[in-house]
Amino acid sequence: MPRKNLHIATFGCQMNDRDSEIMAQLLADDYQTTDDPGKADTVIVNTCSIRAKAEQKAFSLLGALRKYKKIKPEMVIVASGCVAQQDGRKIFSRMNHVDLVIGPQSIYRLPELLKQTKEKRKKTTSTEFIKSFTIPPFLPTIKNGLPHKRFVTIMQGCNNYCTYCIVPYVRGREISRAAEDIVAEVRHLVDHGIKEITLLGQNVNSYGNDQKGKLPNFAELLRQVAVIKGVERLRFTTSNPKDLSDELIDCFVDLDNLCSHFHLPVQSGSNQVLKRMNRKYSIESYLERVEKLRRARPDIALTTDMIVGFPGESDDDFAVTMNLLETVRFHASFSFIYSSRPPARSCEFTDTITDEIKSRRLACYQARQKEITMERHQEYVGRIMEVMVEGESRNRDGQWCGRTTTNHIVNFNSPERLAPGRMLEVKITEACFNSLRAVRVVD
Ligand code: SF4
Predict the structure, then answer these.
(1) Is the pTM of this model over 0.85?
(2) Domain contains 133
């Protein structure tokens, strides 16, 4: 039978990218993927609901698919991801051309649920959180992704219930994947030429906590992966500072292939705001961790997430957030205006901040971060750095682009074509806002 066509549109984070990769692979016997939804027999919209805007984008695409369904009534439209988990059957009343709604835990049942939906010609949902759910073993096909680097999911869900975040409601409680499955997947990837591995989870630092004694903790898992022959670079994301252990910091002393970059979301510089966010750490403990990390790996590049305009955030609270930026001098920040996301608890907080103040604070924070990022980039000028080739640079012909262990993009000329994953040395010649420029250091 000729394979049918599958179109997957993915919104949101790397977890969703990974889930889309898994869904495409689970359907690969019957489907080939197409970039054109009009040519598809089945369309999956893998949604994100971290902010209102992401949710609107997902619904506008789902809405746009109605016209294809009119032309091709047998087309099957699937809503997956966090909006699907959050809204469930409600999606059918809003988008009656959608046939199947599945949550993140149900992606592994997609072939069977799709078959069921088609045979019964009945709208189907699968959004339950299964108490005894375990993440099944999974070995990705190599050809479908980047040739030199991959994300490897190590866990799903989060138990932290930060008051502004809906992840625990749409991704469920923390479920750690079996360590041997993670190691097997990494071995499989490096056996097929992958050089850089990024371990992925909503809060990787708490890996194994849900099965204490049966699974290694995150630092132990990191060591198990780091010793796999062929792992030239090892990264991980995302961490909650409250679970940043000394053991994990020691990994930055001992593991040479552990990259010198740490994304450590702080969210606010004010203890009062952190308390209301239920972040479970103080700025003092955060700074103590940062100092310890920098002692362990002096060239480490720190990036963070910052929310401005959280309910009750006073001018003083914002001032200490700006002080924190001055103290840590992050290499970069992902900074956002607070937006209330039901059913997250902060939606009930009534002391909200006006949009005008929120925008003013965000602009102030981003302007200073931009200056600091440039100052940080300037510190690399003149240095010899090792980069892993990513491919041809997007901005200029003949230019190539690589990534440093500190996670900086470097553009440089090369007399020869370069394969992604090749490691080579460059001398940094210029600092730009989003990247660095360099010349190749010819051996
Ligand atoms: S740790 Fe991260 S994913 Fe978990 S609730 Fe907090 S912000 Fe959300």
Answers:
(1) yes
(2) no
Task: Read off the CATH number of the domain in which 118 is found.
Answer: 3.40.50.12160
Shared-domain flag, residues 278 and 346:
yes
Flag residues of the chain having pLDDT under 50.
none
CB 241 within 8 A of CB 266: yes
Query: Which pLDDT belongs to residue 115?
Result: 92
Q: What is the pLDDT of residues 229-257, one digit of tens each?
A: 999 999 999 999 999 999 999 999 999 99
Q: Which residue has the tokens 């682009």?
A: 401
**Residue 96: both structure tokens together:** 């009656």
Q: Whose CA is nearest to atom 8 of ligand 1?
A: 165
Question: Which of 15, 160, 338 maximizes ligand 1 atoms within 8 Å of its Cβ, making it the mutation to test the pocket?
Answer: 160
Q: What is the CB < 6 Å shell around ligand 1?
A: 158, 160-162, 165, 167-168, 202-203, 240
Domain range for 174 is: 149-378
pLDDT digits (tens, 9 = 90+) for 80-99: 999 999 999 999 999 999 99
- pLDDT, position 144: 63
**Residue 135: inside a domain, yes or no?**
no
pLDDT of residue 1: 67
Residues 330 and 404 both lie in one domain? no
